[in-house]
Each structure stands twice: as structure tokens, then as C-alpha cells.
Task: inverse folding
């Protein structure tokens, strides 16, 4: 049986669950490698993947005999057979954040389950710790992201629009080995950079603009996430101080990120430094990265959580001055026992792109 | 009060619901114009949109006084105030296909509701009938799609890859007034065209290829959907017969599409014609188009449903010969009392693109 399913079966034993229905497609991909629409049933005797005719071929080609997962189509079973899947199971786990109310009702009826038990995101929590293959894929996604950034420094000129730059990011990722973007790129120039979640507009890049570029790609399903704030032609004096403060905090956080670090303390450290200088940290300091662009753990001042070896998180302090400008600097890093390893490696010193 | 919310309140009266919680963001956009993350509460006295600080400004700028919707942040209310929203409401509607099991539990607890009642997609069903503004937006999305197709006929050459063509479609849409694509474009050349849901690959276009291009964009939230199958350099003889048969059925369906037409009958007509010639219709004949690319009604042989004036649907018969080639021709059309109006208007006769 594959290691992740073995882990899940152990966990279920601890939770007194004799069966489980896994619905979240990301969790199914994590546990089995399968990329399709369907359900994973963990029953007393077997691991069963239920899907429809469109996916059977792909799913079978993904699995090996070592996975010990049997593939069936939904239509393979009679009403009676469905009711037998969880026979003699007192508690059957399900994912209350992924199953709709109607889906839940349907489970109850179809499988005739006595007690469906919410699984409280046990798989999402397990996904925080990455194995070597996962780390390799995230590293690859980060490498492509760094290459894209280098390419952009040539591409960006006065007169290009934010939308054109965002499209170039998507194009570069798809043509350089990535599955695609891990989220819609943010390209925010001039005043627009003051909005942390700016959407690219038709605004043209101008001399003296700061540009915040927040982008990431997926490689074999695994995400990268990086932000750089760059300058066009020259560095406006008032931006310099803010840039220096953000970078100082980003580097200090980098120093502290390691197994045993508490994310609440880290976030409060940055918050404190910003406040001392008259600014605020208006979003979280970072988040986990993996099969999803935002996943556990969340680095915020409300989360009393301690980092562990082999977690992958972002480190992304930012300062936003309404209607003027914003600066954010972000890396994706791997937590280890002795410190963190930067997976995105693009330059964080002042970067000035030529005006033409 | 805006017309859509007035309609919903009437409908709720008929369903004996004194309140409702609307969660599906597409339904909220349909009812209010709001594009954000939040909940619409229809209470005895008021219509309340609940959101968080990130969206308050945008939401308030979307609404007018005539909408009669009050905007609040989730944090504005105390536990007691939440419990008072649905006081004296016997039945409160909710969307069982959009609320997760955990969300449902949360509703029960937070609002102290006696009886939460599943709404059985009443809003989705109402969305089938489009008003003039909606038709205008879909028409605009279809116009941009037609323009993109004309552009592609110049762009496509022997040696271009499927991925490059798909990227060009996305680029064209974004630079020509669309919000973006309404779904990932399908560009399937040669053998790949035999898969109805092919994903663009690095395969280069070759002389003698058929290319199936299935694409659509969004304009102010509303979708378009069009497929054309074109030829590179010349038309292979064996493809011609299949093309003619698909086109004949697409045009016959076009003739029949009007208020009063039964979609089961229409689908069986095409199925019959394909079978007579030794082929099969392996997917549905079409689907509704609006704020979502696939919505009610579904044109399939299992759906005994009669079309009405002002519905917008696709007409997309296709034939797929495994490992050889496929042909699909699709338009988005508006149903009227006397017939249908084609909203996508690109040429459906043989189209041969130059090899270079």
C-alpha cells in the first residue's frame, strides 16, 4: 500500500473510524496521485477509487499495483452493493469542508451509514510536511519562477501595460515547463501597488513607477509563490525607506524561520517593527505552499503554531500606503531543523529596469 | 427593490420560506450585481449583504439605493444580533449544493434557525431566462469570439503548436475587451481532435490536419461558447463526409431551436441521424450559457425539457473517431418564439488555412 494511504489508515484507527469517504480532489491527488473527478473510499478491506467512464483510463495508468487501490466506475455497483461498502463500520469519516449539504445527504442514503464523522482536515494537516518528491517539485516550480523574473526584467519597459506583463508571465510559465500559473499574477504599478490584491489593468508602466509583481507557477501540481517590487528608471526617495524596512524585516524573518519557530511570535516581530516606523502589517506574514497555493500553516498573529522540519511556507511582509505606493517582498522557503532554504532566489536588492 | 430580488421574494412566499441565505457567488451576482465574497440574507424586513473589510468599498460602489440592499461586515454584529436575523421565521431557505456540511452546521448554530430548507436550485432555474442586459453582454462576448476566430485564421500556420494557439486565444480575448476566457480553450489537431475534451499539447500543426477549436470568453461576467473545425492546406477525403454530416445536423438543430422545442426530441433526432450513418453522439447536444459556461438547461436525450423564449443555449453536435480525428461545430444561440438567433456567427463552410 502506498505510504500516504498507510498513514491515513493508521490515523483512522486512532480516530476510531472504520471507513472514510475522501472527496477533496487535492487530498485524493495527495493520497493516490490521481488527477480526476471521483471519490476515494477507504473501507475495512479495500481502497476503492470511484469515478466515471471519462477518467477510468487515465486513473488506471496513474496507479501501480503497489498502490493497492481498486478502480471502479460509479455505475459498476447496484444499490445493494453500495450499501455493503461500509457494513459493520460504526464510524465513517468524511470531509465536512468539501462535501456539500446535498452531498452529505446523498452519502447517508446511498451508503446507509450510521454515523458519518467530520474528519477535521486531518489530511490537510498532514500535507504540511513535504516528502522529498514534493520538495523537488516545489523547487522546480520556484526555479521556473526565478527564470520568469529574469525574463521580465528585459521585457518590462515604459509603455507596457500591467495586463501585457501579466500575460507575458502566463505565457512564459506555460512555454517553460510549468503546468500553468498557480494564481492570477499581480502586476501593480505606480499607485496600483498600494493595493495588496491589485488586478492587472490597462495602465501603462511609467518612469518613476514602483511595480509589485506577485507570481507563481505549478510544476506537476506543486506551486511556487514569489513577489518582487522593482523600480522603473530611478528609485523615488520616499519609496526607498519603505523598501529598506520591508526588506530588513523579510531578511530577519528569513533568519528566524526554522523548526521550532512560532509563527505568532514571528508575525508580531514584523508587526512591531512596522509600527515603530509608523506603518502596519495588514495581511498575514505568509502561508503554506504545496498542491495548493494557500494551505496550512498560516503565518499570522492569531495562530499559535510551531513550524516543523520539511514544511514549505512563504515569507512575505508588505507595506501599503493608500493612493501612493506599496512594497512587498516574498520568497517561498523550505523549513529545516537549522534554518530555512530559499527556494525562490531572485535578487532582493534594488532592481531598476531601464525605461526603454 | 431590484427586479431579481423582488422575484426571489415572491418565489419564497410560494415556497413558504420567510427567510433565505444565498451563498452561491454566481447567484448573488445575478440577484445583486455584487462580485465579492459574502452572503446575501433575505430576512423578513431587509436584504442584507454580509462581507468582510476587503470588499465593503467595492460592494457599496456596485449597489444603488434602488437595490434596497444593506451592506454590513460580518464583524458588525454580536452573537445576539445574528440570532435575531431570522426571528419568527419558520422556514429559512439555503442552497444545499453550495453550502458545505460544515457551513450548514455553522448556519444552524449562528442564526439559531429552526428549519433550514434546501432551495432546489430555484435561482439557477430562473437564470435560464435572460433579460435584455444579459443578452447584450452574451452577444458582446460572442462578437469578441467571432473576431478572435477571424484573427486565428491568420495566426494558425504549419509549425505552430496547439499550446501556442491556445495562448493566442487567451491573449486576444484579454486585449480585446473580454474579462478573459470562459473556459480553457481546446485546440486539438490531427489525431488529438478525436478527444472531445482534448487539452492543448506541444504538438505542431501539420499539413492535412483537422483542428478543432473550442473557445469562449467572458464579457462583464457573461460567457460565449463556439467551436469550429478547420483544415490545414487541404481537406482529407474521409473527413469531408463526417464534416458534412455534423454540419447538416447542426443546421437542422438550428432550424428546430425555438420556444416549445423539446431538447430530448432534438437530441434524439441528431443521435438517430448519426446512428444511421454508423456514428454516435457521445456527449450532450448543448447546454445553457450565461454567468456560467455550463448552466441550465442541458440539451440531452435524458432531459424531457421544453425550451422557452430568451434562453441562451449552445448547439454543438460532434463525431469522434478514436485515434483518427473528430469534428465538432458549435454556436451559442438565443431562443425566441419564432426560431433562434445565432450569437456566434463565424463561417461554418469548409475553412482551409494556408500552410504558411
Result:
Amino acid at each position: 500500500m502506498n505510504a500516504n494511504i498507510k498513514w491515513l489508515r493508521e490515523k483512522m484507527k486512532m480516530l476510531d473510524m472504520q471507513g472514510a469517504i475522501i472527496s477533496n480532489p487535492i487530498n485524493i491527488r495527495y493520497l493516490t496521485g490521481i488527477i480526476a473527478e471521483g471519490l476515494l473510499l477507504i473501507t475495512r478491506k479495500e481502497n476503492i477509487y470511484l469515478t466515471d467512464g471519462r477518467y477510468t483510463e487515465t486513473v488506471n495508468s496513474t496507479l501501480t499495483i503497489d498502490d493497492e487501490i481498486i478502480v471502479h466506475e460509479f455505475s459498476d455497483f447496484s444499490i445493494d452493493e453500495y450499501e455493503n461498502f461500509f457494513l459493520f463500520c460504526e464510524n465513517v469519516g468524511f470531509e465536512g469542508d468539501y462535501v456539500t449539504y446535498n452531498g452529505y445527504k446523498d452519502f447517508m442514503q446511498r451508503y446507509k451509514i450510521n454515523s458519518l464523522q467530520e474528519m477535521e482536515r486531518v489530511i490537510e494537516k498532514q500535507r504540511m510536511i513535504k516528502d522529498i518528491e514534493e520538495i523537488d517539485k516545489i523547487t522546480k516550480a520556484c526555479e521556473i519562477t526565478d527564470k520568469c523574473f529574469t525574463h521580465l526584467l528585459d521585457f518590462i519597459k515604459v509603455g507596457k501595460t500591467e495586463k501585457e506583463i501579466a500575460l507575458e508571465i502566463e505565457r512564459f510559465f506555460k512555454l517553460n515547463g510549468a503546468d500553468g500559473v498557480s494564481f492570477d499574477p499581480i502586476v501593480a504599478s505606480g499607485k496600483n501597488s498600494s493595493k495588496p490584491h491589485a488586478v492587472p489593468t490597462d495602465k501603462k508602466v511609467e518612469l518613476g513607477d514602483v511595480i509589485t509583481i506577485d507570481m507563481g507557477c505549478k510544476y506537476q501540481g506543486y506551486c511556487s509563490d514569489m513577489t518582487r517590487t522593482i523600480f522603473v528608471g530611478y528609485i523615488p526617495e520616499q519609496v526607498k525607506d519603505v523598501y529598506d524596512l520591508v526588506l530588513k524585516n523579510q531578511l530577519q524573518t528569513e533568519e528566524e524561520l526554522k523548526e521550532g519557530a512560532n509563527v505568532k511570535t514571528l508575525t508580531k516581530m514584523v508587526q512591531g517593527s512596522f509600527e515603530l516606523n509608523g506603518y502596519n502589517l495588514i495581511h498575514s506574514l505568509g502561508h503554506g505552499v504545496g498542491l495548493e497555493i494557500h494551505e496550512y500553516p498560516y503565518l499570522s498573529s492569531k495562530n499559535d503554531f510551531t513550524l516543523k522540519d520539511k514544511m514549505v511556507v512563504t515569507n512575505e511582509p508588505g507595506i501599503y500606503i493608500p493612493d501612493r505606493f506599496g512594497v512587498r517582498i516574498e520568497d517561498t522557503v523550505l523549513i529545516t531543523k537549522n534554518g530555512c532554504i530559499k527556494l525562490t532566489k531572485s535578487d532582493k536588492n534594488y532592481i531598476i529596469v531601464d525605461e526603454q
Observations:
- Chain B has a mean pLDDT of 95.
- Residues 132-353 of chain B form a domain with the Creatine Amidinohydrolase fold (CATH 3.90.230.10).
